[in-house]
Design brief:
Elements: H1 3-11, E1 15-20, H2 22-31, E2 33-35, E3 37-38, H3 45-48, E4 52-55, H4 65-76, E5 79-85, H5 96-102, E6 109-114, H6 115-126, E7 131-135, E8 137-139, E9 146-150, E10 156-157, H7 161-168, E11 170-172, E12 180-186, E13 194-196, E14 201-206, H8 222-231, E15 236-243, E16 246-251, E17 254-258, H9 264-267
Parallel strand pairs: 4-9, 8-11, 14-15
Antiparallel strand pairs: 1-6, 2-13, 3-5, 5-12, 6-14, 7-12, 9-10, 15-16, 16-17
Helix pairs in contact: 2-8
């Protein structure tokens, strides 16, 4: 594909992003799936340590409390999640904290998906599996408490959609830089569930690679050669970097996107 075609495709497509380590990216590309994460492995302590409570029927027998708590825990941890990044205050691939926290201190990758295709495939999956997805809302007032209800026989009542949105799609404002689109699935399987992203992968951004220094381009790295081979010819590899106050995505020096295009006429007024 010519550079102008790559540039037009990238800039004219709504996108979603997933930051990950280099080795995990290879597994994702080889399996063509994203792996759902377990709630107990989350990095937000508000979500990791969640108090479980319940409202019970008036004829509730307190001797059943331990049994109910066990059932609540079993039910709650049936949920798994995938986190993606949206464009927002910053472009989703251009968030330094995300590169640092989730992409191996900049040596990992940012997978770039065609948002329209990805959402379409999610909607198809919803017909087959218990999947919910939405933007995460960031709140100043946030409670980590999860409350179940029980019926007249003290059986747990499964979460309704409104409750799933309340419990899984809110975080404190200090996480707002993540610009998260979250996908949750409820599964009886003890294994981590997978999501086939089909042909929605658009490109792969790399910021740095361990095999080369920070001054060298990722296109000179072993990692670039490996991931290019695994991804295939249809997936474009982009280099994410910055020059002064201008962040760019490039392919071997050719600009695909930049945050603050430099006016060369102002830099060299006599030329």
């Amino acid at each position: 594909m010519e550079i102008e075609d790559i540039r037009n495709q990238f800039n004219n497509t709504e996108k979603l992003y997933h930051y990950t380590t280099f080795n995990n990216a290879l597994k994702i590309l080889q399996s063509h799936t994203l792996l759902f994460g377990r709630l107990k492995d989350m990095n937000d302590i508000n979500e990791l340590y969640r108090p479980l409570a319940f409202f019970y029927h008036s004829r509730h027998d307190n001797r059943n409390n331990d049994d109910i708590y066990k059932k609540m825990k079993e039910d709650f941890y049936k949920y798994q999640q995938i986190s993606l990044t949206l464009d927002g205050n910053r472009m989703g691939f251009d968030i330094p904290a995300m590169w640092g926290h989730y992409a191996q201190n900049g040596n990992g990758v940012c997978l770039v998906f065609d948002k329209s295709k990805f959402i379409s495939y999610l909607n198809e999956e919803k017909r087959q599996r218990h999947i919910v997805f939405d933007k995460v809302k960031y709140k100043k007032d946030y409670s980590s408490v999860v409350t179940y209800e029980t019926d007249a026989n003290n059986n747990l009542i499964p979460f309704r959609k409104r409750e799933e949105k309340d419990y899984f799609f809110h975080k404190t404002k200090d996480w707002s830089y993540e610009q998260e689109l979250r996908v949750i699935i409820k599964s009886d399987s003890e294994r981590r569930e997978k999501l086939d992203f089909k042909d929605s992968l658009l490109s792969i951004a790399m910021h740095n690679a361990e095999s080369v220094g920070h001054e060298q381009t990722i296109f000179a790295s072993i990692e670039h050669d490996i991931i290019s081979k695994v991804a295939g010819n249809d997936i474009t590899i982009l280099e994410h970097g910055a020059w002064f106050n201008n962040t760019q995505l490039t392919i071997r020096g050719e600009t695909v996107w930049e945050s603050n295009p430099i006016d060369l006429n102002r830099v060299n007024p006599d030329e």
